[in-house]
Amino acid sequence: xxxxxxxxxxxxxxxxxxxxxxxxxxxxxxxxxxxxxxxxxxxxxxxxxxxxxxxxxxxxxxxxxxxxxxxxxxxxxxxxxxxxxxxxxxxxxxxxxxx
Length: 99
Ligand SMILES: [Zn+2]
Known about the structure:
The protein has helices at residues 7-28, 33-49; strands spanning 74-79, 82-87, 93-97. By secondary structure, the chain is α+β, with helices and mostly antiparallel strands. It has a three-stranded antiparallel sheet, with no helix packed on it.
């Protein structure tokens, strides 16, 4: 018989792990960029497995190549009330409006 899973608790732990990993990736991104990317990969994997939303934290890294955004590896442009972020690692562009 399967053990009943406490999904609420699982999600809480998943959130904590994601926060921890993303913090770590922010701390290491100027030291070891590929390592900090690895942290993002792990965080995203946990988020998918436990269906946890990343919300505003997803602005910390590129959705396509999962590299954390870093001043010299990204370009930010603001025009007509919209922000455009270009990832210089993979060239993907993200746009969103500012209220
Ligand atoms: Zn990218």
